[in-house]
Each structure stands twice: as C-alpha cells, then as structure tokens.
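User: Assemble these into one structure.

Assistant: Restating your components, then the assembled model:
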Amino acid sequence: MNPTTFFIFTTLLKIVGIVFVVILPMVSYAVYAERKVSALIQDRLGPNRVGPAGLFQPIADAMKFVLKEDFTPAHVNKFYYWLAPCLAMVPAITTVAVVPFGSTLFGVPMVIADINVGVLFVFAIASLGVYGIVIGGWASNSKYPFLGGLRSTSQMISYELSLGLAVIPIFLLIGNLRLTEVVHYQINHGWLIVPFAGDWRNPLGWLLAVPMWISFAVFAIAVFAETNRLPFDLPEAETELVGGYHTEYSSMKFALFFLGEYAAMITGSAIIVTLFLGGWHFPGIPDGSHGWIFGLINIFVFFAKIAVLLFVFIWVRFTLPRFRYDQLMRLGWVFFFEIALVNIFWAAAILTFFDR
Amino acid sequence: MSINVARPKLTWSERLYLPAIAAGMAITLRHFKNMLFRRTKVTMEYPEEKWDSQLPEHYRGAPALVKDESGRIRCVACQLCEFICPPRAIKIEPGEIPAQDRFSKVEKYPREFDIDMIRCIFCGMCEEVCPEQAIFLRKDYAITGLTRAEMVHDKEKLLEIGGVMHGVVLKWNEKK
C-alpha cells in the first residue's frame, strides 16, 4: 500500500470511528446524562424505565424522533427551513477534525487533520454554527423563532470576541497554532491550567498561572455562551420564547438542532481540554509509541476529560438561572471583552520580561 | 401616584456575583451527591410499589355494596344515596321482594344499582347517609376502563368489591 492510499484509508477510518463510534453515541448519551444528572440534582430519579437504569432511553428517543411526523408548516421558506438543521449539526462535528483526540495508534497520529492553522479553523467553523440557528429562526417565519435567531446572532458576536481574545495568551506562549503542538507543549511544560507544574522553582510558571486561569475562565464562559447553554440560553429561552429558534421544527429536524447543541458542547469541551487541560495527556501514562494499549488509554483519557467537562456543563445548567438579555450583553461587552484584552497585555508583559 | 421601592444596597461580595455562584453550585452538588449515594428519600415508584397495605382505615376509595351474613344484599333501595349523591353518580331501580320470600318484610331491593365511576367524587356521602349500612367506600382506588360504559359499576361489580359485612344492622333478622 503506497503512502497516499494508506493516508486516505486511515483518515477515512478515523473519521468514521470518531464521528460514528465516539461522538454520536456520546451525543445521545449526553442527553441521557443531562436528564439523569438534572434528576439527581433535583432529587428525582430520572429516566429508569427503558432498560437497566434507563440506559436504553437514547435509543427509544431516537426511535421516537424517527417515527414522528416530519411536518413542514405552510408559511415557512422551504429551502432554508430544510437547510438550517443541517447547518446546526455539521459545523459542530466538523470542528473535531483538527482536535488531537489521542497520541498515536499503531503509528498513526490520532488527529484527523493536523493543520497548522488549527485553532483558527476551530473558530472559523464553530462560528458557522450560528447560521443554523439564525436561518432556522428566520425561515420559520414566526415571531418566537425570529426573536430567538436575533438573540443568537448578537450573543454569538459578543462572545466570539472574548472567545478569540482569551486564547491569545496561550499562543503568545506557545508560538504555534497547531493543536498537536499545544498538546506537546503541555506534556513538556505542564498543563496550561497549572503552568508551574513540573518546574516548581521557575517564577515564570507561577506568574503565568494567573493569566492562564483568567483565559480559562473567560474561554469556558464564552463556550457556554457559544453553545447556547444555560445561563446563556437566550436563543431558546423556553419561558419567554416557547422553544426559541426551533419552535416550528418537529421530528428529525428538531432532533438535529437538539443533537447539534450537544455536539457543540462536546466539541467545545474538546477544545477546552486541548487548550488548557493537557489534551490526551495524563501524568504517568506514556503515549502511543510505547504500545497500542497506551494509545487507546490516551484516547480514553481525552474523552474522560470531556465527560467531566460535560458534567460541569450540566451541573451549571441546573444551578444558575438564565441571564436577562441586557445583563448578557453587558457581561459580554463590558466585562469579558475587557478582561480578555487586559489579560493579553499582561501575558505579553510577563513573557517579555521573564523569558524562559 | 407612583410608589418608589428602595432597592436594597448590595454589598461588595453580592455585586461580584461569584460567591453566589459558588454557593449555588455547592448546593446542587450536595443534592446530586446525596441522591447518588441514596441518602435522599424519593417518591415511591408507583406501579412497582404500592401503599395498599398501609392505607388508613378511613380511606375513601370506590363505593361498594355489601351483603349481610345470610347472603342478602343489605341495600333496601330507599334511594337516599341516589338523592344525596352530589355528582349524581348513583342510579337505583328498586324492585319488590315477593311475599313468599324469606325477607319479604324488607319489601324493596335494588333491581339495578349503577354507580358511574367517571362521575363519582369519592365524597363518602352515600356511606354516611345509608340507614342500612349497605354501601361503603372501600380501599380500591385504581378504577380503570377503556370505555365510558366500562366505568359504570353495576350491581354485580359493586357486590364483588364490597363482599360480606357481618353484624352491623340486625333489624331485618326474621326473629325480630
């Protein structure tokens, strides 16, 4: 087998494996986890009828979505109405392409596309996700989806800024946008959330910890806003907008919106894990070059970290109330934008005066 | 005229909002933990577990007719329960007991006795008003049916729920 065929073959295998074997089941079980965790937080039992402890609930849900009538209201713009759910789901999954989800397995690097603009690609594709919501809201030709779509647009614009600015200190430090490089840097110098790990005497690490924590906090909060999760779920705000942008959708098209949200959560968590929490690295576990079993463990570690972050997403959702719209805008423009901006200068100053 | 309500002055830590977030997260995590380790009492899971054995004596379930120890339907078709029933769920058609019958001095018996369980509100007034202690509210509460007609309890069904009640009113005994 010549190298090109091998590359195409392994890439296809990775795409199929990561999307259909890992991400999509994870999405459906994220829905289950959401219901179960929310139930436990609210002193209820949650789904427990379908299968042991309700574990087959996602399958039953999928069956229900497939069997429901796919109804298209007469007053919608058909083309965009059909396009919107796809646009909600596709970018969320596409983002995974550049994220290194493992070290190597049988010598094959566990990242689908190791491109040198890594994080820019993530931002470019992830912000396409808003089009699904905006077009869905607009094409529905109905007031609640319309309002949801509008809110989503302004929310995305506001938080995309702090999202982008928050990661700049990381790349000032690392000097490379490639996400595999980010992970390798963290393996050698300690995870970016604890930059002082490993080299306790070096004052640079301790100084860097503060801007990194600020970056982490701002980035995580902006991801919450980007994925329309509470406390920033203004676009779908059930209590005010019925269902928000997906009010007019039913059946599998609604399911695509719904799953797109969870897929966005997973990819958002994947980015946070890669940038701040050391990617697939865990102290003491060697990478895939020491045997395929370690390669598998690395992949498992990566998704375990994502699972922990997903729990935090759910935990926050069932703790914090939704922001009022003006508070949301104020928070985005007056606080996070400025914090992220000042943070860049601070990190730059530290890097200038304490060169490693 | 407008009334101005003074807004409470927030302290520095309240304005920061973060301590409140942390406190809230701690509360929900505590609830999650307690549920996970089964320290919280939760609602009974109904179809699998039932309170049937622990229902109190005064429980008001489905009304039912009872027979006495000699197998006679206690009801004498006086129609007081039909009259008092607030939602008019009871329909009685009295019949005459023939002279040669052992209980001919009772004179009347219910030929038809229907209780529409869709209308019944389980108030227990029929039991209260009955001079013969012939109708009782029993402990059956899961009254189901697929049609309206199925939900009407006729005499046989009512007697089946009610069963036999011994020695409460003895005035129809032949020896008296």
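Residues 103 and 227 of chain A are 27 Å apart (CA to CA).
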